[in-house]
Amino acid sequence: MQPLLRLLQDGRFHSGEALGEALGISRSAVWKQLQVLEAEFGLSIHKVRGRGYQLQNPLILLDQQRLSASHAAQGWPVTVLQSVDSTNAEVLRLLAAGESAPFVLLAEQQTAGRGRRGRTWVSPFAENMYYSLIIRIDGGMRQVEGLSLVVGLALLKAIEQLGISNAGLKWPNDVLVEGQKIAGILLEMSGDPGDVCHVVIGVGVNVNMKMVGADVITQAWTSLSNVLGRSVDRNQLVEFFSVHLQRYIDVHMRNGFAALQTEWQDNHLWQGRMATLTAGQTPIKGEILGVDATGAIRLRVDGEERSFSGGELSLRLSDDS
């Protein structure tokens, strides 16, 4: 399917005859492949007699060769899949099968994308960035304290490089633009928590996503293309992000999150705001003071400063903030 998609990705009309000649197949075979593209990837293809076939929305597909070349100096092999249930899940399967870290896995589409706290991450074909990097950690999971916040800083730098200047961070795993979510982060662990382990850094970015029903995504969201008013080359975003991510990981592994604590707080959108933290069944209301040297959120609760951390915590602005 990929060769046919690459011919159609410009959004122009292509005749069945021209497509068949380019692919070395019959016009009827072209028609069958087009039907598969529509059924499997949810693509809308216009069919006009005398003009041919046209994608309703042009695509910028991920380029395996380009991304492999651009990541070679980092020592991060890159694999691009057309479709997978979850890039994080596939990375963990590859690790179990003997693949060595580090490596990056990207997908054009996820059929069961995952967010934090068991949420679904909406993952339409060839519109967004679905990215997972696995790294090896020696010395136990204490080495990764605050790592999800560090990934957020790398994401912020990457989208700023694309031209977005008003993005900021929300503890612990989100990037927002004007109060709308544009990216999320999901870290997953494998191995011995006290010794050698692996961390999968999963990142989803809304890049060229246009429309999704409110019944599918229940929180306010936006995309890079919505903010910039143009389509974004996802290959370029991946390249920018990987460069910044490697730099921030290096700083974090050498010096811990404390070395990046001030920079993170400078980019935190909710500093000084009143918020409600949900920890299990007990909501905790307080003023956001920032984060501590481990990346835990600091709240002033009833006049007392308290710190909270954990993968199941949820932070929301209070109605009176």
Keywords:
globular, Arc Repressor Mutant, subunit A, 14 strands, 3 domains, BirA Bifunctional Protein, domain 2, SH3 type barrels, 5-stranded antiparallel beta sheet, alpha+beta, 7-stranded mixed beta sheet, about 325 residues
The count of domains is: 3
CATH topology group of the largest domain: BirA Bifunctional Protein, domain 2
What's the helix-strand series? HHHEEHEHEEHEEEEHHHEEEEE
Q: How many alpha or pi helices?
A: 9
CATH top level assignment of the largest domain: Alpha Beta
- The CATH superfamily of the largest domain turns out to be Bira Bifunctional Protein, Domain 2
Distance between the termini: 51 Å
Unreliable stretches (pLDDT < 50, length at least 5) are none
Query: Rounded to an integer, what's the Rg over CA atoms?
Result: 21 Å
Helix content: 25-40%
Could you give a short account of the major beta sheet? 7 strands, mixed
By secondary-structure content and strand pairing, the structural class works out as alpha+beta
Please state how the strands of the largest beta sheet are arranged side by side. Answer: 3-4-5-9-8-7-6
In total, the number of strands is 14
Shape: globular
Provide mean pLDDT, rounded: 88
Tell me the CATH architecture of the largest domain: 2-Layer Sandwich
Strand composition percent:
25-35%
